[in-house]
Model the fold of this input.
Amino acid sequence: MIRIAALLGLLLAPFAAVAQVAEPDSYRMDHYRAPVPSTLAGATVVDTETAHALWTGGTVAFIDVLPRAPKPANLPEGTIWREKPRHSIPGATWLPNVGYGALAGETHRYFRAGLDAATGGNRTHPVLFFCLQDCWMSWNAAKRALDYGYDTVYWMPDGTDGWLFFDHPTKEIHPHP
Done:
């Protein structure tokens, strides 16, 4: 009996460690694809089904912050470069590269302009941030929106991975200009 309990403890230990990721005081600066905390001070953390209900209600701006891979430098002449399509939550605004820990001034301006477009410039308009499962980009972006003064911020840690797991609809989207 003790051996079974010990074996179960070993098998479940990685899951306990994932559930106990500490919320940092500031932005995550590297290793963005890693287990995330279960909290974000000032924001409401939502599971996929709650996010779906918010999406169905139509009153929350959904913000996808999945980074966009840059075109490789020095491609051989004649190489055709095709952007990888992003299938996301229908109606979401895609603001790539705004979830890094440190942002250049231009990226801050882009992020603010994208949020203004998604919310009509109303910082009381609810916003929901997502990326992929175990992606710090959405955590950073939601935290930054709070720092920008947005009142109602939701964060969906499972991102589009969770959305697809429940077989919710997706649509190809393009980055906000």
Remarks:
- The two ends are 61 Å apart (CA to CA).
- The chain has one domain: 35-68+84-173.
